[in-house]
Amino acid sequence: MALRHYTLDFSLSTAVDSTSTVAGLLSIFHEQELTETVHDTNGHGYLATFVGKHGRLVILRVHSRGLVTIDLQCYEEDNIAQLDNLLNALEKKLKVLLNGNITRIKKLPALVRGAKVDRYWPTADGRIVEYDIDQVVYDEDSDYQNIKILHSRQYGNILVLDGDVNLAESDFAYTQAITGNGRESYAGKEVLILGGGDGGILAELVKKKPKMITMVEIDQKVIDGCKRHMRKTCGDILDNLKGDCYQILIEDCVPLLKKYVREGRMFDYVINDLTAIPISTAPEEDSMWEFLRLILDLSIQVLHPRGKYFTQGNSATLTEALSLYEEQLGKLSCPVDFRKEVVCVPSYLEQWVFYTAWKK
C-alpha cells in the first residue's frame, strides 16, 4: 500500500479573512462528497479536515499570517484524474477569492509514502531528493549494515549502505577524484585501498599496471551484491579475490593497519574509501570522529615518505564539519600537508569534497 500526498500553497501579501475564503471553497468539497470537520486552532487561523470516499483526506488551513495551504492524501490506486481535477478546481477558485493578494502559488508533485520502492533519500546537508528509482535489485542485511542496490533510469544501479547513497554506476567522477583525477602514476606502485567494496577503485587502478593493490573490505555481502549488480562500475574484478596485481582481503582494516605499522610495511598510495567525514560537529564526543582519527593516523604511518593519501570528505556545504576534519589533519602523529578538490558526483546531487594528504 502506498499513499500519495499532494500540496498546494498560496503565499499572500497580507492575512485574509478565513470565513469568506472557506465559504467560497465548500461547494467544491461537497461536490466531491467530502465531509468537513473544523478543528480548534486556538486563534491561529482556520483548520479543517475533509474526509471522502476511497480514504481521501484533504487538510485545509488558512493561516493567520498570510498563507493558505491545502494537503490532499489518497491511496495510490485512487483515480488520479479526479484528484487532479479537484486540485485544479481549488487552485482556480482560490485565485479568484485571493485576487490581488497572492505573491506565490506552489504546487508540488505528489510525495509517495509507503511505496514498495523507496525513491526518497536525503543529501548529506539534509535535503530530500527524489530519485527515479524503479526497482530494488539487491537488499541484504550483513553483520555490519543494510545493503541495498537500487535501479535508477538516470544513474544506473545505486549502492546504498544504511540509507546512505554510496555510489551509482554513473559516478565515475567519484572514482577519478579519490584516485587523483589522472594526475598520478600508479605503474609499479604499492597501493592500499581501505573499503571500496563496490570495486570501482580497484577496477580502475588495475588498468594502471601497479606492482600490487591490497584492498581491505570488511563486508563480503557488499562485494557479493556489487559483483552481480554493479558490473558497469567493477567489471569482473570482484569475481576473484586475487589477480596478477591485486588481492582482496575480507577483514577489518584496523587490526591489519596496526600489523602493517608494526612490520614497517609501506605503501605508495593509501586510498580511504571507508566513510565520509561525520556531519557531527562534536569530534570529541562522536565515535565516528574517533574512528576517523584512528584510520587517518594509521594510514599516514604506513605511507611512503613520498606517498599520497586520498579520501572523500563530505558535501561542500558542510563547511564546519570539513573544517573540523582539516583540524584533525593537523593533529596527527606525523605532520602532513593537504589539498582539497570539489567534484560533482552525479548521483549525489551535491558538490563533494575530496582530500589529498602527504607527509611534510
From TrEMBL:
The gene is sms. InterPro entries: PABS, PABS_CS, SAM-dependent_MTases_sf, Spermidine_synt_N, Spermidine_synt_N_sf, Spermine_synthase_animal, SpmSyn_N. It comes from Salarias fasciatus. Its EC number is 2.5.1.22. This is Spermine synthase. Coiled coil: none annotated. It catalyses: S-adenosyl 3-(methylsulfanyl)propylamine + spermidine = spermine + S-methyl-5'-thioadenosine + H(+). Belongs to the spermidine/spermine synthase family. It is an enzyme of class 2 (transferase). The active site is at D273. Keywords: Acetylation, Phosphoprotein, Polyamine biosynthesis, Transferase.
